[in-house]
Amino acid sequence: MEVVMLESPARVADVAAGIVARALRTLPEPTIGLATGSSPLATYQELIETHRRGDLSFSGATAVMLDEYVGLPADHPESYRMVIRRELVDHVDLPLDRLHSPEVHDDDIAAECARYDRLVTGLAVDVQLLGVGSDGHIGFNEPSSSLASRTRIKTLTEETRADNARFFDAGEDVPRHVVTQGLGTISDARHLVMIATGSSKAHPIAAAVEGPLSAMCPASILQLHPHVTVLVDEDAGADLQLADYYRQTYRHKPPWQPL
Ligand code: GLP
């Protein structure tokens, strides 16, 4: 795992966008895993601007989403598919039929979960962007999720519902149920890139990176993956015991060793 502490949220977005851009430019048929939440928004903005300058194309790419709320109409502005279209996909040249998300409007959600899991695994995600919830969740894998879990329906904790209430008119409107890629599914991606900025992420980042591997902190599954980059600003990295080591490591990173 490589932890990179950067001086500002803008630098975090810059480095994260650089990782995605490299995959888009160098791989013949790249698959990018997209996350929702506010953490990757500046990264998406950076990717959009690079595309608008004519320096980046998504035309050969496929994108897969981590999760989706259950119970919202498909065109609800806070459904994650609509969010990711609004924040990224509608501003770049990714064909819409190559944006994949769980189809939660089917009657048989269990069958849909199995289909989506097979789809994600078959596509083989090259770079998966991740945020982290205040309780350490990734995707919507809440604490106590199996570290080997696959795509399935989950019930949100009240903490997560309260965190996400800011996107809805009333707290009661936040759905209780979601479909999320499992921790095992997410771990199948070749490169996991976690993005976290601001002091509210200091605790979950420290728990994920330096705490025990535990279902109580689902993001700690990153410790088992062979290629993880954790991008944090100074505030989100504030509780890391080895902060000085991470700063030194990045400062002296050999030019031949990419992220
Ligand atoms: C949601 C998403 C996660 C995201 C988390 C943190 O619960 N399902 O993918 O990482 O929120 O969101 P934010 O980045 O807004 O703090």
Structural write-up:
The chain is α/β, with parallel strands linked by helices. The chain contains eight helices and ten strands. It has one domain: Rossmann fold. The protein is 32% helix and 16% strand. The strands form two sheets. It has a seven-stranded parallel sheet, sandwiched between helices. It has a three-stranded antiparallel sheet with strand order 4-8-7.
Short description:
This protein is of the alpha/beta class. The chain has helices spanning 9-26, 41-52, 80-87, 109-123, 158-164, 183-187, 202-210, 243-251, and strands at residues 2-6, 31-34, 62-65, 67-69, 99-100, 127-130, 152-155, 177-180, 191-196, 228-233.
Secondary structure layout plus pairing:
Blueprint: E1 2-6, H1 9-26, E2 31-34, H2 41-52, E3 62-65, E4 67-69, H3 80-87, E5 99-100, H4 109-123, E6 127-130, E7 152-155, H5 158-164, E8 177-180, H6 183-187, E9 191-196, H7 202-210, E10 228-233, H8 243-251
Parallel strand pairs: 1-10, 2-3, 2-6, 3-5, 6-9, 9-10
Antiparallel strand pairs: 4-8, 7-8
Helix pairs in contact: 1-2
Bound molecules: 2-amino-2-deoxy-6-O-phosphono-alpha-D-glucopyranose.
Residues 35-39, 66-67, 131-133, 139-140, 160, 164 line the site of 2-amino-2-deoxy-6-O-phosphono-alpha-D-glucopyranose.
